[in-house]
Amino acid sequence: MHRSSKRLASILACAAVPVMLVAGCSDSGSKDAAGASDSAAPATSAAKPSPSLAAAKYAKLPDPCTVFSNGTLKQLLPKPKNDSGEKGKTSDPNASATCSWYSSKSEGVDGSQFRWLDVSFKRYDSEAAVNTTGEKRAEEFYAKQVDLAKATENATKVQSGAVDGTGDAATWITYHMKSKGNDYRNQTVVVHADNIVVTLNYNGAGLAGGGTPDSSDLLKDAEKAAKEAVEAATGKPAAPDASQSATGKATDEAKKNDKGSKDGKDAKGSDAKDSKS
Length: 277
Hints:
With 277 residues, the protein is of the alpha+beta class. The protein is built from 7 helices and 7 strands; from the N terminus they run H-H-H-E-E-E-H-E-E-E-E-H-H-H. It has helices at residues 2-15, 31-40, 70-76, 134-150, 215-234, 246-259, 271-275; strands at residues 86-87, 96-106, 112-123, 156-162, 169-179, 182-193, 196-207. A 7-stranded antiparallel sheet has the order 1-2-3-7-6-5-4. Strand 4 and strand 5 (169-179) form a beta hairpin. Helix 5 (215-234) packs antiparallel against helix 6 (246-259). The longest helix has 20 residues, at 215-234. Residues 1-31, 33-50, 243-247 and 263-277 have low confidence and may be disordered.
């Protein structure tokens, strides 16, 4: 009777503990029952760790105001207001960086020529929390930048195409706009290179009676500058055999658009940029 009472007390004690500990509860006289309990416990497999993400290729961005050679700046900006450019504010210069320039060159009785240039860099790290590589994140941002340029409000004669010989993918977008009675020609080049996206904007206009610049010439300059910016960010020069660039392919059509816009119904330039002139 005494032995039965001790066994009952042991059973009641086991009933009061968490289920995970039940298999360890038995008195010294219940080895067979303990063995049966152990054999009945389901086997648990170790959780498989998620596959590790590849680290982003590039860990930093260049100073955006130093990515162009003096020759390139002189070609795109005949008379810049500030040779050093104006660096945009950023909380992390290795995540995003921008710089802009503008030029207004007087041509006397022939008015003046206005030019605006800006370049922006966006860098992405791999994100384990969402299982996405830096390259994939940059690819998605690249697509958004291209769509954004194509959908510019009030833009006309929008054209786009692929740029050869730089980055993993590159697209040019050109369009006309009108601002404050002036005809502007705008060019945007967006490049995706591993975990970095480079976006370059370049526009021009003839002010105070100045002649409207040729879109095809501006686009050639914009593409050249974009390739220079990508090289500064990645250390990889543009492919030397990329002579048949998208710019060249678009030249004839751009000239046709310019010829058809002499009536001043299309062109570009944001009010903010125009006001700097």
